[in-house]
Amino acid sequence: MATLLLLPLLLLPLLLLVWKLHLGPRLRWFAADLAFALRALRCKRALRKRALAAAAADPGGPEGGCSLAWRLAQLARERPAHVFLIHGARRFSYAEAERESNRAARAFLRARGRDAGLGGGAEDEQAAAPLAPGATVALLLPACPEFLWLWFGLAKAGLRTAFVPAALRRGPLLHCLRSCGARALVLAPEFLESLEPDLPALRAMGLRLWAVGPEAHRVGISDFLAEASAEVDEPVPGYLSAPQSIMDTCLYIFTSGTTGLPKAARISHLKVLQCQGFYQLCGALPEDVIYLALPLYHMSGSLLGIVGCLGIGATVVLKSKFSAGQFWEDCQQHRVTVFQYIGELCRYLVNQPPSKAEQGHKVRLAVGSGLRPDTWERFVRRFGPVQVLETYGLTEGNIATFNYTGELGAVGRASWLYKHVFPFSLIRYDVTTGKPIRDAQGHCVATCPGEPGLLVAPVSQQSPFLGYAGGPELALGKLLKNVFRPGDVFFNTGDLLVCDDQGFLRFHDRTGDTFRWKGENVATTEVAEALEGLDFLQEVNVYGVTVPGHEGRAGMAALVLRAPQPLDLAQLYAHVSENLPPYAWPRFLRLQESLATTETFKQQKMRMTKEGFNPNALSDPLYILDQAGGAYLPLTPARYRALLAGELRI
């Protein structure tokens, strides 16, 4: 009893030390930090165990292949009848997904010239050179079951897949196909009309062309689904897809960088394996039904959504296009429990009029990124109780953060426990020079609480950076050396984050000119180069502006005319819609006599961003994109008020 009475006195020095070192606020979250760290360690152990089992499996069996192939085969054996995919009225079990992808794999193997012993199939009518082992096949498809069967089939056939953004055409499309070294392209029949001007260039590149439907025969393109349906659905030997190294590239996902045109990020077998743990880290369960309305050509949709679902053996409701008006009815119909979002989708939902379907739903967890605090608060207040788990990550990056505590506006935690499992640092960054600040010894300096810093993560065998397809110059600036000690190497995310005194991480800004709109990265150089193709424009400055009530930043272009030519808005709209994906179209135009530059002749993007697009404050002629009408219209004070009131869509 005496010892118990003395315990508070014995603990008093420790409590005073905690108070003096300002550790109190951080210790408040220790239990949550510890629980997540333990979950992460269990997840890592489980993935390692799966990988070791696959390595020891019979190479002639389906579970001896790459991480994607053996996981699907494993689920088809363990949970054959469990529903894997729901798309509209179509439902596929794990066993059916395995069989569909086996047919696709065999069709691709036949295209490789490996038909011996495969059985089934028909002779290849297309006089094309066989695809070499490890060749890249590009997919230009919407989010649909066929996208998954072809992706899984390519993995099983030992071929690399390139996910081409569905909106790309002309120059950007050809650039993407060349950069990843694609030898074949599979496209959706509904894209044929818009792709028709590109077909001669695609054929000139020597690409083997398939379409997922018979409509393509009129332009001389083979029907891949017909070829696959002629194949048997028996398992494909694992040795055909087993990589020599887990670091080998198995996939290309295109990401817009500050260089302008999309870059093909190399995705390794290791990263695919790691992404199998995504939903386990989020706390999702095998019984969950996950709603996915994100493009599959993005990492969020494919690696986190689909591969993450495979990781726990759950069910995914796949939507080709998100509909805010249909969302809650879908959730009720399919008994959805988990929703994977980008911030813009949540904003669409909270701006919808109330409906009966939003009451009594089963959604308990919303996982994603880019959710603004105001939308977050409105979402939970209206649709709760829903746990929002905001995350942060990059396609080519080696670091991810999880806001497992649900702290409003945060993207994760910087506890020592989390950083022990997923190491990273925030370092001081000079926005003027665009470089990290270094001390007298040449080392970077860690930030203090509340100070924006550049997020960097150490590069190691467990957390590599594979770079991009193409020349090494594409990865310039992505690796920082001698950060804290001589010889160390860190991945530069290019993003500024802030860590507060409680250890919460909050996104601050991007270091480059790239901005996000409609959940997509928009590179200002790509937009500017497209606009400079118009002969009546002499100079162009593209930047992002904040629009009240909208996520991210909308594109705005300051234009200088080439005298004596007038501004042709109709030609400008036609040119933009022809050469840029819709999310990259400038929402605002500003006509100027000359562009503002710095003393070193660099364009004043920051100043232009601050000046915005208010016609009451700017004397320059301003224009706004009217997507419904397919034109740029003068931005009058009345249209400006309508935009702020949410009555005008951009």
Question: Briefly, what is this?
Answer:
The chain contains 21 helices and 30 strands.
Kindly report the spatial arrangement of strands forming the biggest sheet: 2-1-11-10-12-13-14-15
Tell me, what's the shape? globular
Kindly report how far apart the N and C termini lie: 71 Å
Tell me, what is the CATH class of the domain at 57-62 and 94-123 and 131-272?
Alpha Beta
Count, helices: 21
Q: Summarize the amount of helix as a percent range.
A: 25-40%
What Rg, in angstroms, do the CA atoms define?
26 Å
DSSP strand (E) fraction? 15-25%
CATH topology of the domain at 57-62 and 94-123 and 131-272: Rossmann fold
* Overall pLDDT level: 89
The secondary-structure class comes to: alpha/beta
Under the CATH scheme, the architecture of the domain at 57-62 and 94-123 and 131-272 is 3-Layer(aba) Sandwich
Strand segment tally:
30
Biggest beta sheet summary? 8 strands, mixed
> Which parts are unreliable, with pLDDT below 50 for 5 consecutive residues or more?
122-127
EC number: 6.2.1.3
Domain AMP-binding enzyme C-terminal: 526-602
Membrane topology: Multi-pass membrane protein
Keywords: Cell membrane, Fatty acid metabolism, Ligase, Lipid metabolism, Lipid transport, Membrane, Nucleotide-binding, Signal, Transmembrane, Transmembrane helix, Transport
